[in-house]
Amino acid sequence: GNHQLSSEIWYIHNRDSVRASVYLYNFYSNEEDSNLASQLNQRFMKDHPGNPLFPLQALGICDTDASRYKDKIERAASDVATIPVLNVNHTNMIQQLAARASDSNCRHLDVEAVETLLVAASDNPDQIIHPSARVDLLFTRAQIEEHRENYVAATDALRSAMDVRPNLEAAVLMAYFMVESGDLNMAISHLKESIRNPPVEGIISRAIWRQRLNDLLDSLSAVQLERNENER
User: Fold this and answer.
1) Model-level pTM?
2) How large is the angle between the packed helices 2-13 and 18-30, nearest 10 degrees?
3) How many structural domains is the chain composed of?
């Protein structure tokens, strides 16, 4: 009751606030009142025209009508492509949709729907994309390619993410995708190089990086040793 009251009061006194609108939407969405959440989101899209956050949010509400859901995808893609600055609030939402698309109760929310959003995010050369948002998009690309079992493309997406901003999760996932693509030796070489030259600054950060990757390297090296013994 208090959560509902606080979210409603915050919105009433801050109707122009995107955060207040999202907070109110999340309350009813978490309460599984999808009808009211959908109605609120429609209002927020009118209150904040051109902000892709709310059209993206709408994709989390599954419509039984396929054409209606397609219209929602096109609306979200249009706003994603035309907003002057794409930030992590938008790309986090796209990444969440990608995660749901691979295991969703909504048959209209599929990998191709997320692909449409990703293409839209790269269509506007004049658009400013924050570095963290770009990393989100590359992780989303990796998620999609993993779903398609295209592990080489997934690895390439994460390598690009590492070029933007070194990320321990990306380094670990790259090794995983290399193994999935059937190249255990490449995964081991990748880990050895990442441990030898951690792409992060600071003694503590480098120590954490090395410890995490060393554990994974030990596991993969044991697998490689077992394979070599079996081949003798």
Assistant:
1) 0.85
2) 150
3) 2
